[in-house]
Structures are given as structure tokens and as C-alpha cells.
């Protein structure tokens, strides 16, 4: 037990930047809000440390347009930033996906930004002629936190899988063409997921799993039905691809064989720092029907798992785990709801202290501790 407490303290120290806010048992929670700078002089990044929110003075010049992806081993977040060349068109009301963005890493201790993937020198959005720019997907960290992977749609109309090495600052194209058949229905940016098996690339109907060293295609997994979202998940020490069908039945798919089985439980988010602490489980709430004609309507939601106790959070679940986070000590949960920051602790949910008047109108990330998915067995 003493060794476990020492480990928590050590990791919390690694994640705790130098701040003027009041010290607490947990390091501060990082909040990000996309394009807040368009509405006011407020920054995109804020810290909440138990009693108040303060602007994060680091990562100056950021224009956050994606969730923050926290490294599993270091106090760093990777995210997408709106490219400079796109700002004039945003001011004219242009919006949408697959437009110019840059991939950045922010060191939460020093506040320094590393430009991982930015626009080519000849990028252009000229009024006359063809546009030429790069568009990057939300990145994913390697399990050991030493590398970063993403897909990018280049100005040459090529969709490729790219990997960045933090130690050497080298970038290499792992797969030169993820769309060799030219399927125009595919989005220009494909979400990527990294596990001990390989790098999974979302291809809408399933996953393509690639070797992390050579970029060889290990397997193509096709889902029998459309899946709202999918991710890597562990069950009995093995990594699987998880997906749910239109009936909200969850499945586990072997990434190398494609064999599928019904998940013997429900997806559960847990902290990599304190895996035995609080967890968040996906569940379904089926409220009473409005009348005798209307069938019951399933409402997805998060539930807090505290040992053998399972307690639902009092708000509808959204398919974005970046809007919830577990504290590093594993004793509380933060989540965004109704434009406010809420904290669940000791069996109760309340608006977080000092955040009663802080509007989270465009919140896109809560970052507190590295998290991962596992199968939460029913009855446990």
C-alpha cells in the first residue's frame, strides 16, 4: 500500500506544472475550449485546482480545434490547432471539417509548444486556382508515450499514416497511401488508435491494423453493422477492438484474426495511474415510456464504478470520453454538463468549487489523468 501511494505521489508530481493556484492533493485539472479567442481575450487553456480557475499562461498562440490527447507517461498534450492561413476565411464565416490545421504538442510543465506537423511552405487558399494545404487527424500516443501517430490528407490528395518520434524529433510516413482505390466517400482524415498490437486506422466500416515498425497491413477488420464509435479495449490482459451496433450491443474483435464475440460486460474508462480507483462505465438507461404507444427510448449514460457500487451520473452520456476525467488519486471525477464543470466525489455530484460562474460554452477537453478502456464485468 505504501508503495502504491508513493507511485501516485510521484506521478502526480510529474503532471503538476508550476502554478500560482492553491495546492491540493491532486494536480490541477486542465480545461480546453475551442476558439474561445474568437469571442474574447480569454485563452483556450485553463487550470482548475479545487477552488478556482486560472488561465494557463503556457502554450501561447494556440488555437485549439480538437480534444487534448494526454501522453500516458509524460505531462504533455497533443492537439490540433487552426492554421494561420485558415483564419481569414474563418472570419468570413467558413467552417467545416478537413480544412488546414497544425498538429502541436504542449509541455504542461514548461508551456512550450512543439510543432509536429504544420502547413507546407507552398500552402495556399488563393481565391483563384486550386487550394493546397494539409489536414491532420486527431493524434494518438504510443502506449509508452515516446511516439505520436496520425493520418494526414496532403495537398497532393494523398491520405497517409505518419509517426513522430519525440526523442529524435523525426517524422516518418509509415503508410504512404491509406486510400489506394480512391474511394471518395472516405473522410480526408481518419482517426487512429494505438495499442500493443499495432496502429488501428478507422475506415468507417471497421479497422485497418498496421505494424508500428514497417507499416505492413496486419489485418482489415470489418464490422457487421455500422458502429457509432470504436476503440481499443483490454479484456483478460489482451487487446481487442471494441464496437457497438445499432442495437447498442457491444462486441470484442480480435485485431489479428477478426474473430468477434459479444462483450461479457460493458466498456469502462479507468485511470492508468490508479486502476483500482473510481472508474466510468457506459450504461443504458431505459426510462418509462411517455405513453402506451411510444416505445421505451434508450438513453446512454455514464455510471461511476466505486468497488462493487455502481451509481449513475445524473446527465445523459455523450460519445466523447474527452468530456470526463478521473482524478489522479482515483477518488473523484470531473465532467462537463450544462456549460459547467461538475465534480463527483463521495457519492455526490456538485458544480466544482469556484466554477459556479465559469461558463464552459465550448469545452472540448478535460485532462486530469491518462485513461484507458477495459471491460467492466457485470455484477462486479
Describe the structure.
It contains 2 helices and 30 strands. It has helices at residues 2-15, 87-91; strands at residues 29-33, 45-48, 53-55, 69-70, 76-82, 101-107, 113-117, 135-136, 140-141, 147-153, 159-165, 171-175, 192-194, 199-202, 206-210, 217-222, 230-235, 238-244, 250-253, 260-262, 265-271, 279-285, 299-306, 309-316, 324-326, 332-337, 340-345, 348-351, 363-367, 371-377. The strands form 7 sheets. Strands 8, 9, 10, 11 and 12 form a 5-stranded antiparallel sheet that branches. Strands 24-23-22-21-30 form a 5-stranded antiparallel sheet, with no helix packed on it. The protein has a 4-stranded antiparallel sheet with strand order 3-2-1-29, with no helix packed on it.
